Amino acid sequence: MNPSQPSRPTILVARPVFPDTVARLRQHFEVDVHDSETPLQGDALARRLQGKSGVFVAGVEPIDAALLAACPELKAVCSMAVGYNNIDVAACTARGVLVTNAPGVLTETTADFGFALMMATARRIGEAERFLRRGEWTHWSYDLMAGQDIHGATLGVLGMGRIGQAVARRGALGFGMKVVYHNRSHLPEAEEAALGARWLPLPELMAQADHLVIVVPYGPASHHLVGREQLAWMKPTATLTNIARGGVVDDAALAEALRAGQLAAAGLDVFEGEPQVHPALLTLPNVVLTPHIASASLATRRAMADLAADNLIAALTGQPPLTALNPEVLARG
Ligand code: 8YV
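Above: the input record for the complex with 2-keto-D-gluconic acid. Below: its predicted structure, written as tokens.
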């Protein structure tokens, strides 16, 4: 670099991401890209962050108090995920580190997928495809792969944020479903009326839902929110779909409940300890399993990466980031 030029901030892109996104970041920063799908964490991440002002992360790299203490030059953590349970936002705020996530841009794509996974689960699409591919389809029969209806059924939404509301809209307006939900806060009356949605306490939600879709953020308050006790409240014909985070559902308890016929089927895009999957789930025919891809349309993944890049560029060039989780850090100057 020419010594007469002011030095540019140095950042880490902690995951391989679209080359265009990296090229855009290179227009503003010296960029170090972690070019491996093995996530950086702990000491390895801290070492790689030495001398860096910003980091671009996906939803997995743990950013905690110990890491922040080891990386005093870090000023901004910008994630391309909406969920931020991998980031200790309070610890970042305490150290004056700005944190941004990527809400909004993935709402409709994620809701599309949640609905598709719910439908695949209820109508046994994974199981039926495996049956056909195995060459076992020899004749029509009145109950061959007969599942549960979606239209007119009761949709239970656990977590009524942006994505939960988008799932509810699909159910209510597209499929004539009755919508019930559980959330810390109630929706405004007008929004409840538009969706025909009714708030229920968790036990009643679990008991009334024909199809439960879980979209609640993960944190200490939602760890194993759906465990053995809650699963026992479900109808034996009901389905459960999790597009939130592994850890909201107790996967071992879910496998047991499915085996015992306490619910009919489950669709899971997220898992405790992913990419590991609880071995008992892998043996069950009535579970549709996908590798955390609810937001994975190309257009949406680009929008997520672009938003994280825009946030990082703004944060380190003195402009207000678009989606800050701790904007109070900016006010401190
Ligand atoms: C991401 C997600 O694919 O945004 C989130 O919270 O779970 C997914 O959309 C994942 O976190 C990697 O960015």
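Notes for the reader.
Residues 59 and 220 are 17 Å apart (CA to CA).
Residues 107-289 form a domain with the Rossmann fold fold (CATH 3.40.50.720).
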